Amino acid sequence: MQHITSLDEGLDLFKALGSDVRIEIVKLLIQNKQLSMNELATMLKVTNGALTSHIKKLEGCGLIRISNESASHGNKKLCSLAHDKIVIDLDTSEATHNVYSTELKVGHYFDHKVYPTCGLASSTTLIGEVDDNRFFSHPDRYNADILWFTKGYVEYEIPNFIPYSQRITQIMISAELGSEAPGINSVWPSDISFYLNDVFLGNWTSPGDFGDTRGIFTPDWWYPNWNQYGLLKMLVINKKGTFMDGLKISDVNIGQFHLDYQSKIRFRMAVEDNAEHIGGLTIFGKTFGNYRQDIKVTMNYKPLEA
Asked: Do 87 and 2 form a contact (C-beta atoms < 8 A)?
């Protein structure tokens, strides 16, 4: 997901999409997921030279990504979409306030209850044994850059270092998430629930456990028939409610929590026993998947009222 917080920030993207040919390129990549430069040129009936200039504009604004694949006659350039959604936020009232940002490693949860299939791994090795949930308590879990489970939860404490005498007006949490199927399965829905300080914020249904191509940052030692990448999701809690990728998922608003500079903030991601789709959860850190990030948290704040 690409999040644009102002018209100026999105200017390069808007310019890149101001072309019928480039719109067609995006449509073809939506339909086919990945195409070579030659395939795109043939479908569009343009020369490779003409296509290259269009591809550079789309790559420059972050809309598509280019990867190289070895072929019998040299390297083949493959094109794919870099984002599954584009969110344009024109209401910047919260963004004008002071901001505190932090990142949580995937393995830095403080509480958990998970059921197999499950496991954790660092950037270099598995942590313990797969499908043995005892290893979610292992000290090496702090090095985990990916974790997965079929049902249950992991809960994180968000560091709160906003300045003295300030209150929190918005929390934005971004993470790469997916389902957890036995092996991989692009059609494996899972209802993932989100909680803040034990208050249910809402659900998002992950469409699948993706492994059709290797994740951009997924290490080479990782098994090819295991989950490769997820979808970048953005959860926002502000005065208007709770939103996932800009779409409202509940009326729970930030004012209900009365959060200030002294508050403890706990964030839980869960797959519940009574969910309609119990398809598991995979959380990707910066050395796995398609996005070089851990769990990002941004909090807006302003002074406490007298």
From this structure: yes
Two tokens, residue 253? 């608003």
Q: Any bridge partners for residue 119, and if so which?
A: 148
Q: How far is CA 219 from CA 254, 276, 285, in A?
A: 38, 33, 12
Tell me the three state secondary structure of residue 303: strand
Q: Assess contact for 162 and 101: CB atoms under 8 A.
A: no
Q: Is 17 exposed, middle or buried, given 0-12, 13-18 or 19+ CB atoms closer than 10 A?
A: middle
Residues 226/121, Cβ–Cβ less than 8 Å = no
Element (H or E) spanning 120, and its range? strand 119-121
List the structure tokens of 35: 């195409």
pLDDT tens digit at each of 306 positions of the chain: 676 666 667 788 888 888 889 999 999 998 888 899 899 999 999 998 889 989 998 988 888 888 877 655 567 888 988 877 777 766 655 555 589 999 999 999 999 999 999 999 999 999 999 999 999 999 999 999 999 999 999 999 999 999 999 999 999 999 999 999 998 999 999 999 999 999 999 999 999 999 988 898 999 999 999 999 999 999 999 999 999 999 999 999 999 999 999 999 999 999 999 999 999 999 999 999 999 999 999 999 999 975
Whether the Cβ atoms of residue 226 and residue 284 lie closer than 8 Å to each other: no
Asked if residues 151 and 271 have their Cβ atoms less than 8 Å apart, the reply is yes
CB 192 within 8 A of CB 268: no
Radius of gyration, CA atoms only, the chain = 21
- What order do you get walking across the sheet with 111-115 strand by strand? 111-115, 151-158, 265-271, 190-196, 199-206
Q: What sign has the CA pseudo-torsion 268, 3, 86, 76?
A: negative
Alpha-carbon gap, residue 267 to 103, rounded angstroms: 13
The pTM for the full model equals 0.79
